[in-house]
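Q: Predict the assembly, please.
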Amino acid sequence: MTKSFKTRYRIVIIILAVLTAMLLGAIILLALGADVIKTYLVILTEPLKNKIGVTEVLLRMVPLTIIALGITVAYRSGIINIGAEGQMAMGILTTTAVALGFPNLPSAVLIPFAILAGAVGGAAWGFIPGFLKAKLEVSELLSTVMLNYIAAQLYTFFLRGPMLDPAELVTGSGTPQSMRLTRNIDLTRFIKGTRIHTGIFIALGLALVIFLLLWKTSFGYKMRAAGASERAARYGGINVPKYLIIAMMISGAFAGIAGSVEIAGVHRRAIEGVTSGYGFSGIVVALFGGLHPAGILPAAFFFGLLIYGADMTQRLVGVPANMVQVLQGIIILVIVATKMILANPYLMQRAEAKWNTLFAKKQTHKEVEA
Amino acid sequence: MEQMTKAINTLRIEHITKRFPGVLACDDISLEIEKGEILALVGENGAGKTTLMNILMGLYHPDEGTMYINDKAVHFRSPNDAFAYGIGMVHQQYMLVPNMTVVENIALGYKQAWKGWKLDLQMVRKRIEEVAQQYGLVVDPSAYIWQLSVGEQQRVELVKTLCLGAQFLILDEPTSALTPQETDELISLLKNLSKNLSIIFISHKLQEVKDLSSKVAILRHGKVVFKGNTIDHSSSDIAALMTGHEVVLPHNDAPACTLGPMLQLRNLKVRSDRGFFALDDLSLYICKGEIVGLAGVSGNGQKELAEAINGLRKVESGTILFDGRDIANFNPAQVIAAGMGYIPEERNTEGIVPSFSMKENFILKDTESKQFSSHTFLKKKVINETAEKLRSEFDIRSPNTDVAAGALSGGNIQKVILAREISRNPKFLVAVYPTRGLDMGAAEFIHKELLKLRNDGVGILLISEELEEITNLSDQVAVIFKGKIQKVLPSSEASRRRLGILMAGVKDDEEF
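A: Predicted assembly structure:
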């Protein structure tokens, strides 16, 4: 197999995959009676036309990136975390608790403290499925999904009960939300007239941290080895269960941090619907980004664009924003299919044979000339 | 309805050439096989054997050259064409569905049994019995595949191919997964089969080439470098032609145990995955600078023994004294730290992390060591330099050290494992089937390295099914049977016959 053919083959397959995804999406758009080309144009270009649009996309990129980084750590270590949604909710609760409990701490202390609390909340929620998997071989697919429900109910309980905004009790509207948190926890919005906040630098920093952790340290090496081949890792003296649990805790901690940052940067109080599916979209971002920080950043931007663009299609073309979830589903299917195609050497061999029979004449001709 | 394939009296290929970009896989190959002949196709990995067989099976089209069946030129466009002419292949990896019965498996490819929506299993069963009788191939049609041993599964594959009407059999390394007993059975079976049809088999093992084939063809770099009648040539002639130089498989003839004990196993009891005692009161002593070969039919506790020593399996009772310290039930990291080296049976899934690069695999056991990391950060430069050094020292053939270890050939994967284990300076090495499935060149290399290690004072437990390998390398041969050591004898007294009897479980062998 020549190297150049391999690269060309991969590029062609990826282009075909993108076209397939767009085509499948187009079928559904047509079924909705929408203008396909206009819808795609709105989703992909409309948000980028002004400052607000771009910053709103970046704003959505922050939690997507942080969660996807956590998912990557788990995935690379051989455990699939579908529980980021719940871990994020737990992170929001612990962050809120800290902010409510210590409103007078200066920003420089409170913000790291609150984010750390979010990490601990998420890590605790990640520890449970990690422990169950490592010690009792409970499938993490089951346990993480179940824990999402539990977290969602706990979240509602706290917002309606212990953390409920006292003002709600007075007015009696009873919206389940905490009071406006102390201003000391606010992440700075650094561009006037937009909501973009310093959380984006936290996300970028964490991407670097994950890259260094996974690929440059012996700790990350062991986690990746445990994920890539459990038997070989065990043979090599790596305590696989231990690293499974640690990876799941890191993964949960990242989801928790995403929650903290979202609260401190955007909502400024715990309200319902903060997680809004970021925990699931984060999985797609991680896979789409090739489970590598360098891929996750553009992937998160792309999905931020999709999510924000979908809001606009609702307003501009009348296509419901839920369409994005359909698109996400299609993208997951296409990624999985593409991965299987790329991993099949026989298919590539056959493609090459076809290619050679089709163009063999030209080649010999060239050789003669040479 | 009977198969309508005509008998193949002669199959001849002339001037077959097949190019892949940058490689000449088959270079002007001409061969001829007549009915009743068995051709052994030998050559090192990458010599072009598989490409040639794929051409015969219609999977590849030759760039030049022609194939003749019964003196008529034929062109196969696909494997279906090859089947139609009666050419059948038994692959190295069996294509059987484990949770289906023998009849059901054979019915899968047997188109005459497909009656609309129904499958005529009765008819397939009858056909199996016919074939079984005609060729003396005994299989139980109602057995499930998972119940069968590897040897029996292979017989099912043969029956399947014959049921489909094969007149010409291609066997890709048919004995690579068989025990010595099963190998002997297969060889007599194939001899019997060859009365009625022709066979080509690919092999790395000289012994079976000598035992089975009537003709031998040796491929090297895509060319036929030798063809002739097997009977006219000695094993060492053939071996020399295969590698292109005179191969004298290294032989151990140094004095035994003079340096004192290194590993003492006392009354070990270890359970198998299924819960019975796979090791039952096993005791064995191995000295520094000594190779003890463990012979036995696979499944008599070899795997469990290797895993128990290396901390991968719980020891129920007994002690493992390693350099004076009991390491029974240490965890793998502790066993490694104590100075144990281990070449595991499953080189592709256990010995390496297949998706990791070669250089990453070299540090699998040493990510925490001062040599390769400081404050948990890996030392990229040292790792790269060490990898380059090991690659050239152990002659690992790959474009660089960044290739995924799983993409290497079997021989090169084994060299990666060996390089890692030896470079860690172990006090002792457990080597399980270290050359299984490897070509002569790679096997020779690994044998030399093991002997070198022995002469440096390292004790080695060599677990193998190749009696020749065991007797050539070992100072002592221990025979394992049902989880016990049947007998330990000096290598000089371990004749093939005597080992065979001990391996079969007969204890009192003094008369031989």
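Residues 364-370 of chain A have pLDDT under 50 and may be disordered. Chain A touches chain B at residues 1-2, 5, 216-219, 221-222, 224-225, 228-229, 231-239, 353, 356 (CB under 8 Å).
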